[in-house]
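Sequence, structure tokens reproduced for reference:
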Amino acid sequence: MSDEAKPDNPSESQLGSQRDNQLDNQPVYRENPSPQHTRRLTMRIGNAPGEFGWVHGSMQFNVDNTECLPPPKDNPGGHASPVPMRMIPFELVRQPDGDYEATVFTDGMVDEDYHGRGVCHWKLLNVQVQLKATGAGNETLFMADMFDEELAAGREKTIYYTRNSYPRHPETKLEQPTSSGQPDRSKMASYLKDGDLFTITLIPQEAVTP
């Protein structure tokens, strides 16, 4: 397995986003080319059920102050203007000890007056890592989320998953199964033993100097 889990080419997603915006006569929401508010994020897999050959990370940013958006009359058929959202991929690099390290940031989008109604302020909603055994479409997609408040507080977060869901649960009928796990071990089925589970732990660390 490669030591680096690389995200999709961001330039392609940016170009697609720009084309969609132009077709909808919407402004182009700009990514910050030089984020300053960065943190190091470590991902640790405990009692792994096997190798994860497909590992991706992304950050979700939403506009936080909706008063900067056009009123509903400028959104035909809608009751309110949809809140703009952008996903920015990040790279997870596998370390010799098996952990993965990444750099994430909270200022991934440019605050700007996009609609002529005042500056739109973007906020990081969450950081998510996604894992699959090989990346095949019918494998379980395991997801682990850390929300902005958890990242800012520097709190370690562990999420539990069932090992028999890897690479795909033998009884699932879903074509593309997913699992977001359970952060509270006590809420899982009582018959599940620790040996039946694996964990993904996200560990936010000190700020990174750009």
Helices lie at 10-23, 148-153. Residues 1-23 have pLDDT under 50 and may be disordered. The longest strand covers residues 197-208.
